[in-house]
Amino acid sequence: MSDIMSNFSWLYGKPVATGKLKQLPEHFIVKEILGFEFTGSGEHLMVKIRKTGENTKYVANELAKFCGVKSKNVSWAGLKDRHAVTEQWLSVQVANSDELNFAKFEATHPGVEILEVTRHNKKLRPGDLQGNQFQVIATEVTDIDDVLARLEKVKLTGVPNYFGSQRFGHEGNNVNEARRWGRDNVRTRDNSKRSFYLSAARSWIFNHIVSQRITEGYFSQPVDGDILLDRNDRNDRIVNENVTSEESIQKIQNGELSITAALAGDNQLPTTGTALTLEQPHLDAEPDLMALIRGNRMRHERRAIELHPENLTWSAEGDTLTLNFSLTSGSFATVIVRELLQEIEVERTYSSND
Questions:
Q1: Tens digits of per-residue pLDDT, 88-121?
Q2: Which class for 161: exposed (0-12), middle (13-18), buried (19 or more C-beta within 10 A)?
Q3: Are strands 306-307 and 301-304 parallel, antiparallel or unpaired?
Q4: How far apart are CA 67 and CA 60, in angstroms?
Q5: Of 3, 81, 146, 354, which residue is the catalytic one?
Q6: Strands, DSSP E only, in 85-196?
Q7: Rounded distance, CA 176 to CA 244, Å?
Q8: Strands (DSSP E) found in 44-130
Q9: Beta carbons of 163 and 206 less than 8 angstroms apart
Q10: If DSSP codes are grouped into helix, strand and coil, which group holds residue 115?
């Protein structure tokens, strides 16, 4: 199987070590961080689950059946991997839950545990998420010393804030389908599918911009016309003045400011000068993707080009590497591992739940 992420540059060069990820579900543990408290009352039943070998949508549909509601009445803050052990909250809009015995649900769904149940006055929505805590175990790792040396660099400088391969689908099929939709002017009432392909289109272009900045040596170095995000501002205030000054460079190094790249929209890029020459060619190179983006009136946004895992720790025993870290919402754990080792594909049995 081809690796779609091989289209993009590595910050520390292509890894020399290889290893296996997700050889067992418990080798990839994800715990959701919502960042807010529930009210304890309201029309939405909040159910915290731990799932193993199941995806979020499948469990949500099964929970809807169990609670006697339609699938649209069950929602979540973020989708979680199937081939992992993950903890997350689901909200169920159900009036009377007194007679629900979740032990029966667990008995018929061995891959799901119900950890906690409470109530809230609002449903969960995609994006209602502060971040995720990860434990990632890589096995059969070769050249462990090289991996450990790379980890020191990751802790100091971070990694490219790429969108992971999950966004692009098997062998990039999501991107190919997004191109077809743009080329053929496909129309649909399926908002979920439209959003899926739009996300793939914008992510693909963003990754290419970040990759070029790495190639040309501008990953940690601002250029004229860049747009920065102020990380001290809760709303990620945009900064586009004096971006190449010594003060700005120091704030970038301290993590107070972040260099950004485009999430393309139907309006012109707001970057100028050198930054515009780094971004515009990647939009021009994808006319079909841009036709889809413009046809759906997407507004231009900015995304930080670097990703700094929080509370990053690691340990190695023999050829097994264990990583612990947290990421903010919208970031991908796999792009951290990508800078450390080349992943050897693990054979899995897939089902209709994938």
A1: 999 999 988 888 999 999 999 999 999 999 999 9
A2: buried
A3: unpaired
A4: 10
A5: 81
A6: 85-93, 112-120, 131-139, 159-160
A7: 37
A8: 44-52, 74-76, 85-93, 112-120
A9: yes
A10: strand
- Helices 287-295 and 173-184: crossing angle in degrees, nearest 10, is 70
Give 286-337 pLDDT, tens digit per residue: 999 999 999 999 999 999 999 999 999 999 999 999 999 999 999 999 999 9
- Grouping H, G, I as helix, E, B as strand and the rest as coil, residue 273 is helix
Query: Has 81 been annotated as catalytic?
Result: yes
Condensed to tens digits (0 to 9), the pLDDT of residues 74-91 reads 999 998 988 899 999 999
DSSP codes joined into one string, 276-334: HHHHHHHHHT-HHHHHHHHHTTPPPEEEESEE--EEEEEEEETTEEEEEEEEETT--TH
Answer yes or no: are the C-beta atoms of 353 and 184 closer than 8 Å: no
Report how far residue 202's alpha carbon sits from residue 265's, in angstroms, rounded to the nearest whole number. Answer: 8
Among 78, 79, 86, 109, residue whose Cα is nearest residue 26:
86
Is residue 32 within 8 A of residue 87, CB to CB? The reply is yes
Q: Could you give the CA distance from residue 74 to residue 182 in angstroms, rounded to a whole number? A: 31
Query: DSSP assignment of 187-229, as one string?
Result: --S-HHHHHHHHHHHHHHHHHHHHHHHHHTT-SSS--TT--EE
What single letter denotes the amino acid at residue 314?
A: W
Neighbours of 312 (CB within 10 A): 17
- Measure the CA–CA gap between 16 and 343, rounded to whole angstroms: 11
Cα–Cα dist 80/30, whole Å: 8
Q: Are strands 310-317 and 320-328 parallel, antiparallel or unpaired?
A: antiparallel
Instruction: State residue 238 phi and psi, 5-degree precision.
Output: -80, 135
Residue 316 has which token pair? 């190695």
* Complete edge-to-edge strand list for the sheet that includes strand 301-304: 237-239, 228-230, 257-263, 301-304
Spatial contact of 207 and 162, defined as CB atoms under 8 Å apart: yes
